[in-house]
Design goal:
elongated, 4 helices, mainly alpha, single chain, 0% strand
């Protein structure tokens, strides 16, 4: 079982990473769109940007979650 996981091609990991980013950007856009400080409503591109910045752990601080549930979701995506 472990050998199967270790032997994945890099393209497989890249696809999983991309699916993860797109999935969480859709979650942010649909469920947590109004849960960010100083922003009335985020567009899908802004949530995609936020998801990429969060996953790469850059965290510029230009889009900040406002609710505790948003922080929980960000913790899940970072895992």
């Amino acid at each position: 079982m472990i050998n199967k996981i270790i032997n994945f091609k890099p393209l497989t990991y890249a696809i999983l990473y991309l699916v993860n980013v797109i999935f969480f950007s859709l979650v942010y856009w649909c469920l947590f769109n109004d849960s960010f400080k100083d922003v009335i409503s985020l567009s899908y591109l802004q949530t995609l940007y936020f998801s990429i910045i969060t996953v790469t752990t850059l965290g510029y601080g230009d889009i900040i979650p406002n609710l505790n549930s948003s922080w929980l979701l960000i913790t899940i995506i970072l895992q």
